[in-house]
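Collaborator request, handled under Task 6.
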Amino acid sequence: MTDDWNTNIIKEFRANEGRVGGPFEGAPMIVVHHRGRKSGRELEIPLMYMADDKDANLYYIFASKAGAPTHPEWYHNLIAAGDTTVEIGTETFPVQVSEVTGADRDTIYTEQASRYPGFAEYAEKTAGIRTIPVLALRRNR
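Structure tokens returned to the collaborator:
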């Protein structure tokens, strides 16, 4: 079910220059490529992202898994790999992956939650269970 959902969002993303409708209409979307740590399969996940206000080559993604008690598998895959490829709009480019922690993580997550209240709900669901990771994706030059 989730694979079909994601596949349809990715098809819509690619057909509409990075824009999608439904629950993500108007939201900044990114397709993140990653390789399964165990399977070795090439995978893709559509996610909302937040661009850095000061650095045009820096993007943030959020391993919310809609407030589930565990981190999504793509998070573990990206941390293990350290780099990947992403699609934003009609561009595909390589990025370095790093986890944002501490006060920086909290500031970025709070900003995302203020823009998109669903992220505040995800944080409420995971309170006392896990801290939702924030990953920084830095465009390779």
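The cover message to the collaborator said: "DSSP finds four helices and six strands in the chain. The radius of gyration is 14 Å. Please let us know whether this matches your experimental observations."
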